[in-house]
Amino acid sequence: MRVEKIKQFSVFMPNKPGALSRLVALFADHGINILGIASEVRDDSGLVRIALDNDSDASSILSKAGFSSVETGILSVEVDDKPGQLKRVADALAEGKINITTVYGTSVVGTRTSRILIAVQNADKALAILETLAAADPRTAA
Q1: Going by CATH, does the domain composed of 74-136 fall within 3.30.70.260?
Q2: What is the pLDDT of residues 8-20, one digit of tens each?
């Protein structure tokens, strides 16, 4: 298991053709890697959550392009791609009284690693809990 704190931007945008293309082009044009992306759409508007490497200046890039966004710190948790790993992470956070507010993730077919992106109410405490969990199991320590 590998866990790190990264940036997530919640970007408010219209629900119309080309909106997502315009948004992700900003990151491509600035050489910023998108680690995860999820969206919610309601009627004529949407919210896109984008997880990025920490070294980017995405906030000013988004503002200059006219996008309204909110930056938060989230956790990127890399686990073995096998059943029960999300439960293990969720159980550890629940035991630590950490509330999960958003979760999304993926795995790549043919690899043995999945990435779970987790927004919580106390990212520093959650990071410490998951680092302890990773250290307790030598099979998953990175």
Answers
A1: yes
A2: 999 999 999 999 9
